[in-house]
């Protein structure tokens, strides 16, 4: 599934790409929320690139990729107090985003990349809010949804 990138959002807390939700992505989000009891959908779909940023107004950021490919099957990661459903970015787009993060590092002069990061778009969680998601979902066992 190919999704268009709307914008890069970067502030002191986070660097993320805001997505233009395709009909296919919205349908998958709806399917997941229906299939997973208690899950609430995210309103603004995005891909987090880094969890902190030394961004200032003096930085001109390189243009992000225009599209990101996702795998077709959502998965759920869960622990006692939280659960998150998400679509993993495809292998080719994982490489593209990792390269983009390295470009950002060159512009900002700091390390943003995490060796183990798996880029993904969270579709839902128990609150519908980003802070309700499991941090580093790739470190948790998953089940297909």
**CATH superfamily (homologous) name:** Cyclic phosphodiesterase
Top CATH class: Alpha Beta
The coarse silhouette is globular
- Topology as H/E string? EEHEEEEEHEE
* Cα-atom radius of gyration: 15 Å
Characterise the protein shown here.
With 145 residues, this protein is of the alpha+beta class. It has a single domain (2-144), classed as Cyclic phosphodiesterase (Cyclic Phosphodiesterase, Chain: A). It has helices spanning 23-35, 91-108, and strands at residues 2-10, 15-20, 40-41, 46-50, 67-69, 75-78, 83-88, 120-125, 142-144. Strands 3-8-7-6-9 form a five-stranded antiparallel sheet, with helices on one face. The protein is globular. The mean pLDDT is 91.
Task: Describe the secondary structure blueprint for this structure.
Elements: E1 2-10, E2 15-20, H1 23-35, E3 40-41, E4 46-50, E5 67-69, E6 75-78, E7 83-88, H2 91-108, E8 120-125, E9 142-144
Antiparallel strand pairs: 1-2, 1-5, 2-4, 3-8, 6-7, 6-9, 7-8
Record keyword descriptors for this entry.
30% strand; 145 residues; globular; 2 helices; Cyclic Phosphodiesterase, Chain: A; five-stranded antiparallel β-sheet; four-stranded antiparallel β-sheet; alpha+beta
Summarize the structure.
This protein is α+β, with helices and mostly antiparallel strands.
């Amino acid at each position: 599934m190919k999704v268009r990138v709307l914008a890069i959002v970067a502030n002191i807390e986070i660097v993320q790409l805001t997505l233009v939700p395709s009909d296919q992505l919205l349908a998958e989000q709806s399917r997941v929320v229906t299939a997973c009891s208690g899950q609430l959908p995210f309103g603004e779909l995005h891909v987090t690139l880094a969890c902190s940023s030394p961004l200032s107004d003096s930085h001109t950021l390189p243009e992000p990729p225009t599209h990101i490919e996702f795998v077709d099957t959502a998965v759920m990661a869960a622990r006692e107090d939280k659960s998150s459903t998400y679509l993993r970015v495809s292998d080719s787009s994982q490489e593209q985003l990792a390269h983009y993060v390295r470009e950002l590092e060159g512009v900002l002069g700091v390390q943003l990349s995490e060796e183990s990061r798996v880029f993904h778009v969270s579709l839902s969680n128990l609150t519908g809010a980003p802070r309700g998601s499991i941090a580093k979902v790739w470190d948790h066992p998953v089940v297909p949804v």
